[in-house]
Amino acid sequence: MKASHDMPREKLIELGSRALTNSELIAILLRTGSNEMDVLELSQELLKKFGTLTRLLAADLSEISSIKGIGPAKAVTLKAALEIGNRVFKEIASTTKTALRDPESVYYLCHDMTLLEEEAVRIISLDSKLKLSGYETVSLGTIDSSLLHPREVFKSAIKKAAAAIIVVHNHPSGDPTPSSEDIKITEKLSDAGKIIGIKLLDHVIIGKGKYYSFSASKSFDVLEVQHAITRESYGTYKTAR
């Protein structure tokens, strides 16, 4: 007979949710296994296929339910639970005065944009100490310098009396290398910010597992930026004054 701490539900009750692995948490959501695998083995198989929770969140119902032992009901439960987690993260980020010190912090704030299937532009408003004042999506679809007007970009920043903004948009292809249009947009918004008095601190392009920062003039792999030396060498933001 298994010890209680070897069973996910009982382990959570005894030790708390933080003590559980990702596969154990998923096992609780799945509730039951299949004829070939117990519930923990099934959850491990699920993670093995998708690799990360982020990729599992990005998967559609048909992809999840295609795994043997996971039907529509289990797939729906997983999608709902992961989406709740995603919304909680965004809610906390939008209501907490988080300081954004470098491109890495911007990536993790906006990592959900890696899941979008079309291009979107998000504007992050910051106070003079680089603390988050709020953010909002101002454009969906193909990003064109002739269509993205500075008025729309700076509108919410002006309302929030922001000292600076960071523009973030995604490349659904996964490659964050800036296009000629991206460069034109950055130059246009930088010039407009100087006139308005709200600094364009950075333009960050979100890709799959990597991103590009205009302030650093460099692409970063997500694993690479976890090293302090890399963060200090490239793109650390200076306080907006």
List keywords for this structure.
241 residues, 16% strand, 6 strands, alpha+beta, DNA polymerase, domain 1, single chain, Cytidine Deaminase, domain 2, 2 domains
Secondary-structure blueprint of this entry?
Blueprint: H1 8-15, H2 22-30, H3 39-50, H4 53-58, H5 61-65, H6 72-95, H7 103-109, E1 120-126, E2 132-140, H8 150-159, E3 164-170, H9 180-196, E4 199-206, E5 210-213, E6 218-221, H10 228-233
Parallel strand pairs: 3-4
Antiparallel strand pairs: 1-2, 1-3, 4-5, 5-6
Helix pairs in contact: 2-3
Word description of this protein:
- The protein is of the alpha+beta class and 241 residues long.
- The protein has two domains: 4-92, Orthogonal Bundle (DNA polymerase, domain 1); 98-233, 3-Layer(aba) Sandwich (Cytidine Deaminase, domain 2), CATH 3.40.140.10.
- The chain has ten helices and six strands.
- Strands 2-1-3-4-5-6 form a six-stranded mixed β-sheet, with helices on both faces.
- Strand 4 and strand 5 (210-213) form a beta hairpin.
- The radius of gyration is 21 Å and the shape is elongated.
- It starts with 7 loop residues before the first helix and ends in an 8-residue tail after the last helix.
- Residues 224-233 have low confidence and may be disordered.
